[in-house]
Amino acid sequence: MYSITILSIFFVINFYLALANPLTHLFGSINSETPPFDVVSKGAKYEVRRYQSELWAQVDYTVDASTDFGDKVSIGFQPLFQYITGKNEKQQKIPMTAPVVMQQLNADSTRRRMAFIMPASQFTQLDQLPKPTDSNVKLVAVNEPLVLACITFNMGITSKRVNVREEELRQATTTDNISLVTGRENIRVGGYNPPWTLPWFRKNELCIPLVNQA
After folding, report:
1. At 6, which helix (H) or strand (E)?
2. What is the band of 15 on the pLDDT scale with cuts at 50, 70, 90?
3. Which of 46, 89, 131, 142 is deepest in the core (most CB within 10 A)?
């Protein structure tokens, strides 16, 4: 069995999509809006992307150091899900996007962050977003870093898989003379699919900013 992963956060918000077209989601179809980017270059196992500025709704939370990367994601998911489904000052509903971003914010992995990327088709400035009524939900503009090296993988998101893909990405970019920033807090892991997607068809990404953001 797979441990509870970040992918499970899509269960409620994508339920109506599964009813509408369950087979496409079973095999990895992605219907949510995704953030735009340009591909700067491609390596054998990765690509370098230049993203536009993004607006995030995010929640930081604390877990035990032994908690797997994909476990206890409901701590971050619940307030974010409530925010986009109307728990805000305008009682406004906001469409779900993909991927959902997860980060480990310190060396021992006890501080975690989950973020929903706000749809760029509807919001371009922070003041356009409804203010959260939950103080744990923070709205931030992510204006840097915007140039990231990203590697894609399938199956569930676990600490072991994240560590393997990080090492794989760092080795591949080093071979190509591309320098990535250090520090676990700079790594972004994203999950695109609902939990009923077959593991082999799931899309996950691990992205690390380049040292040179030019």
Report:
1. none
2. very low
3. 46
* Residue 143 burial (10 A CB sphere; 0-12, 13-18, 19+): exposed
Q: Check pLDDT > 70 for residue 24.
A: no
Give the SS3 label for residue 177.
Answer: coil
Residue 165 predicted with pLDDT over 70: yes
Mean pLDDT over the full length of the chain = 87
In whole angstroms, what is the distance from residue 171 CA to residue 59 CA?
Answer: 31
Residue type for position 191: G
Question: Can you give the pTM of this predicted structure?
Answer: 0.85
The tokens for 152 are 């894609």
Residue 145: how many other CB atoms lie within 10 Å: 16
Separation in Å, CA 123 to CA 13, 53, 109, 116, 151 = 20, 11, 32, 13, 27
Of 67, 23, 95, 53, give the one whose Cα is nearest residue 159. Answer: 67
Please tell me the distance from the alpha carbon of residue 174 to that of residue 191, in angstroms, as a whole number: 25
- Has residue 143 got a pLDDT over 60? yes
Structure token digits, residue 146:
């915007």
